[in-house]
């Protein structure tokens, strides 16, 4: 709702908060789906994506023709970005991403994954659009929750996942992270 392009309304953050509050009032799982789709997937693509990434994904995500998930949370690190263990390296013109993400809303049903990984060569982090079906991308265990059962939550595994260079978002905003063993 806050994106002003692609025929979207460009509402204020307060209006967006009221929308999510009403969704939450009806069903917390639906609110989780909607907030991940809009705030954690569409917004970073709109803010940091190339024109090609935006043109391809924003309309499809807005119409619900594509489902996205946000891969930051990791086993042993939670949502502490500074403790991220997932790594990406540029190899023969592609990014090779290795790691695991945990408790990912929409993880098992997503068409695209906005995944964060440490890039040791740059002393920072990067975000990548990883499409479902990419070799090396696999869905792990689905969470069997007591509540919010309508919200599909699963682990995401990246094992030698080869991501095209054009799928990197321009998110060079986390330099000088602590060294991770």
What does this 3D model show about the protein?
With 181 residues, the protein is an alpha+beta fold. It contains three helices and seven strands; from the N terminus they run αααβββββββ. The strands form two sheets. A four-stranded antiparallel β-sheet has the order 2-3-7-6, with helices on one face. Strands 1-4-5 form a three-stranded mixed β-sheet. A hairpin with a 4-residue loop joins strand 4 and strand 5. Helix 1 runs antiparallel to helix 2 and helix 2 packs antiparallel against helix 3. The chain is globular, with a radius of gyration of 16 Å. The termini are far apart. The model has no long low-confidence stretch (mean pLDDT 92).
Pick out its properties.
27% helix, alpha+beta, 3 helices, 181 residues, four-stranded antiparallel β-sheet
What's this, in brief?
Helices cover 27% and strands 30% of the residues. Strands 2-3-7-6 form a four-stranded antiparallel β-sheet, covered by helices on one side. Strands 1-4-5 form a three-stranded mixed β-sheet. The protein has 181 residues and is α+β, with helices and mostly antiparallel strands.
Helix and strand element order: HHHEEEEEEE
Please tell me how large the radius of gyration is. Answer: 16 Å
- What's the count of strands? 7
Strand content: 25-35%
């Amino acid at each position: 709702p806050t994106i002003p392009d692609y025929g979207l309304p460009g509402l204020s953050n307060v209006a967006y908060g009221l929308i999510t509050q009403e969704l939450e009032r009806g069903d917390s799982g639906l609110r989780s789906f909607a907030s991940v789709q809009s705030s954690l997937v569409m917004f970073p693509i709109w803010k940091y994506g190339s024109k090609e990434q935006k043109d391809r994904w924003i309309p499809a995500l807005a119409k619900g023709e594509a489902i996205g998930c946000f891969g930051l949370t990791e086993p042993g690190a939670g949502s502490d970005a500074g403790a991220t263990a997932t790594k990406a390296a540029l190899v023969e013109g592609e990014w090779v991403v290795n790691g695991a993400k945990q408790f990912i809303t929409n993880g098992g049903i997503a068409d695209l994954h906005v995944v964060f990984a440490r890039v040791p060569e740059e002393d920072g982090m990067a975000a990548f659009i990883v499409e479902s079906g990419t070799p090396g991308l696999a869905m792990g265990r689905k969470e069997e929750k007591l509540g919010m059962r309508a919200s599909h939550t699963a682990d995401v595994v990246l094992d030698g996942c080869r991501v095209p260079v054009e799928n990197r978002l321009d998110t060079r905003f986390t330099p000088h992270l602590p060294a991770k063993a």
